[in-house]
Amino acid sequence: MSASVNDEYALIEPEAGAWHNAVVSSHPSDGPKAPLIVYLEGAIVRLDLSDLRLFLNVVDAGSITQGASRAHLALASASERLRNIEEDAGVALLERRPRGVVATEAGEALAHHARLILQQQSLLRDELRDYANGARGTLVFHASTVALTEYLPRKIAPWLAARPLLRLELKERTSSEIASSIANGLIEAGIVSDVVRSSGLDIRIQPVVKDHLVLIAPAQHHLARRAVASLDFNAVLGEQFVGLASGNALHDHIAQHASAAGRELSLRIRMKTFEGLCEMVSHGIGIGIVPIGVARRYRRRYPFQIIALTDEWAQRHLCISYRDWQALSAPMQSLLRHLGAQPD
Q1: CA–CA distance, 280 with 269 (Å, rounded to integer)
Q2: H-helix or E-strand containing 333?
Q3: Where is 95: in which H helix or E strand?
Q4: How do residues 55-65 score in pLDDT, each as one tens digit?
Q5: Is 58 exposed, middle or buried (0-12, 13-18, 19+ CB in 10 A)?
Q6: Per-residue pLDDT tens digits for 309-326
Q7: How many CA atoms lie within 13 A of 321 on its CB side?
């Protein structure tokens, strides 16, 4: 049944229709170099990716010699591998012609599926590389209110735009909550206020932007009329406040300091946005506390007075925080570098 159709090795003559109804499978649990297994009319053909590449090189070149060269194999080694494939299959895959070799019908079927398999392998490799370098997947990042609303949108936008397959899940938390989560290994990193320096937690923080908190008062408020330039937070705890919505990290932070002073904020109304808060203050509803950048931006639209807070907790910076740079995932390292972090 065998016939020599190439002077480089002997091909085995197939039984009629032997290639039809072939089933191709693989066993991932066998490891990355596990062979593909082809069940062909009861015969088992074991192929690995290098076998498929070699076969395609030979088919595309129309020559075993040139195909072996493209596959960076010695001619004898290539011939041996092709012979083993055909012996396992029990079917001729290549046919000799005056100017080289061409694929038989069975060989064309193998070549077709080989191209599909290698294409999928390439897509898989590229996808895994995307996960490794941070171009694909989901990244969770915690940030304080100000960082989330004022700082991160303009900073993150170009970085995320360059990674269309990556999802970024931003969560608003207080600085103390973020710092605690990082220290306990619950999250990789976040943006916090530098007041967490005194927390004693084993975390790293790197300042990236000034974020001082200031008091804003209506133009007709007695503090504005007195042209007060700065004051202590305790001095205004008896005033009516415009606050941010319940659960807002910045509002909770301010309320905690009021509670530490033995008082509660007297809130007339809560607003969901800084702009809403500033508009309410400008209409005389009460006073408010916002970051200096927010106050300067909205004062152009709404009339109110900016008064500096002298409390140490109000003289803050936004900081990138993490525990161990080397333990961060590649995408997180990329994001933190983009935000201004310097590796340890």
Answers
A1: 9
A2: helix 330-339
A3: strand 94-97
A4: 888 888 888 88
A5: buried
A6: 999 888 888 999 999 999
A7: 33
